[in-house]
Each structure stands twice: as structure tokens, then as C-alpha cells.
Amino acid sequence: MLDEHVAGHREIVPDPPPGDIAIRLQCVELRYGPKIVLSDCSMDCQRGEITCVIGLSGAGKSTILRVINGLRHASRGHVFVNGDETTHLSDRKLNEIRRKMGFAFQYSALFDSLTVGENVAYPLWEHTELNPTEIRERVEKTLETLGLEGVDKRMPSELSGGMQKRVGFARAVVNDPEIILFDEPTTGLDPIMTHVITETIQNIQKRLKATCVVVSHDMPSVYRVADNIAMLFEGTIIENGPVQQIKASRNPIVQQFLEGSEDGPIPL
Ligand SMILES: Nc1ncnc2c1ncn2[C@@H]1O[C@H](COP(=O)(O)OP(=O)(O)OP(=O)(O)O)[C@@H](O)[C@H]1O
Ligand SMILES: [Mg+2]
Questions:
Q1: Which of 125, 126, 170, 191 holds its CA 20 to 30 A away from the CA of 110?
Q2: Coil, helix or strand for 178?
Q3: Quick check: CB of 123 below 6 Å from ligand 1?
Q4: What does pLDDT average to over the chain?
Q5: What's the pTM value of the predicted model, to 2 decimals?
Q6: For the segment 113-154, what is each residue's pLDDT rounded down to a tens digit?
Q7: Rg (CA), the chain
Q8: Domain ranges for the chain
Q9: Which residues, chain by chain, have CB under 5 Å from ion ligand 2?
């Protein structure tokens, strides 16, 4: 298919991936101004599975989630979500895709002027036909699952950072999305809450058969939840596959990262 929207150029759009691949990044380049953060970045996320994206701080992991969600646009390459190439979609079409996607941001990104309950209810008001009673019940149930019962009337500023993080998580999953993006879901949480969040991700994925993309530094959590791991290094996914394949990787960069060693090819 020919695409004529790209700055007057004609670009060949590749065929969409097979149905078992919910998300595909194909040779994506992404710039912030002159700075190229992702270059020739390709990865597949299997439908109904959990893919963890790992990589050094500042490698561009959050940027990958922004590209999947359409918050940032690739300057080259292609992004497919559920078979749709999203790079040049209209806002209306992009919103339809986002409606089925939850995003738990790295820094919570709650609405300061709304209560906790209103924050969590937001996707239900926006994207569903549920009535106020149903919304209230769903919000209460989701908060309870995350150990946040009774805080729905409070303002985000009255909560600790870890609690805010869990509220952001609740908001991302409350409307049972098909695809959920989690950016560092356990960073900054105590071990018990890390456990709760990790279990919640697994339960949601099992219950909804959702496709999850989890960005994380926390390797024990990664090993617990991941079906697949993608490692990002210098703008490119250098390894993407089932956990055992990544663990057995002979790539010295992957090995060094997994071992957390200071000796190896990764520049300190
Ligand atoms: N809005 C922006 N404008 C300019 N540069 C940006 C912007 N957002 C991110 N960057 C830069 O792009 C690079 C990748 O950022 P990103 O947040 O995706 O990394 P990350 O892997 O998620 O990092 P961390 O592990 O610290 O969360 C970083 O060098 C960052 O400084
Ligand atoms: Mg990040």
C-alpha cells in the first residue's frame, strides 16, 4: 500500500503483522528535536502475553510506550497496534485505539484537581456507558485490589508517592483494556506492594487475556511476570524473545545487564 501522508513523500507501508502479534514496532526512529532516541528499533509483542522492556536508565524505554500509545510519533518506520498502522492515523482513529489501551505512567500523572476516585473513574466516564452506580462499584473494587480502600475521596497530593503510583495503576486497568502499558510499575514501592502489583499484573493478564508491555528495571519482578523480554540498548532492541532465550543469550551486553555487572561492554 502506498502512503502519501509522509511530508509529501511516498512510502511503502509494510503488511500488518499476523493476528497473534498485537503490537509491532518496525524500524522505528524517534527524535526529540535533534536527539535521536530510538533508531531502527523493532520489536513484536505477542497477543495475550506479557512483554517486559528492559534497558539502562535513559535508554528510551518510556519513549517506546509513548510511541505505542501514539503520544509520540515515529519519524521513520512503522508502528502497528491490533493490525492498524498508527504512525499516520487521524486523531479520531488514534482515540479509538487508545480507548482499548491502559497506560500506567512512570510518574503517575494523576489529575491534581480530581479526587482519587474521580481519577480512577475517568476512563469509565470517557470510554464506557456504565451508570454512576456501576462506575462507583468498579472504582471501589479496583482500589480495593490494590490495597487502597477508603482513599477515594482524598486528593492525590495527600497520598504518598507509592500510593499515587498505585492509583495511576488502578486508573490504567479499571476499564479492562485489551492492551496495558506499565511504565516502571514497581519502582519506589516496598517489597509487599511490589508483590501486590506483580500479582495484579499477572491476574489482569490472565483474566482479560490482555497484551501487557511492562517497562522495568526490577529484574526479580521481570522474571516473575514476563513471557517475553525485549532489551533496549543504544536506541535499538538488541534481543527480543521468551525469557529463557534472553537468559541464555550470548550477547555480552544482555549478559552484563542481567548479571548487573560493572565489567563488560556497557559503558559506565
Ligand atoms: N520530552 C523530551 N524532550 C527531550 N528529550 C527527552 C524527552 N523525553 C525524554 N527525553 C530524552 O530521551 C532519552 C530517553 O528518555 P526515556 O524517558 O524514554 O528513557 P527511559 O529509558 O525511560 O529512562 P528511565 O529509565 O530513567 O525512566 C533520555 O535521554 C531523555 O533525556
Ligand atoms: Mg522511563
A1: 191
A2: coil
A3: no
A4: 91
A5: 0.92
A6: 999 999 999 999 988 899 999 999 999 999 998 889 999 999
A7: 19
A8: 110-176
A9: 62, 106
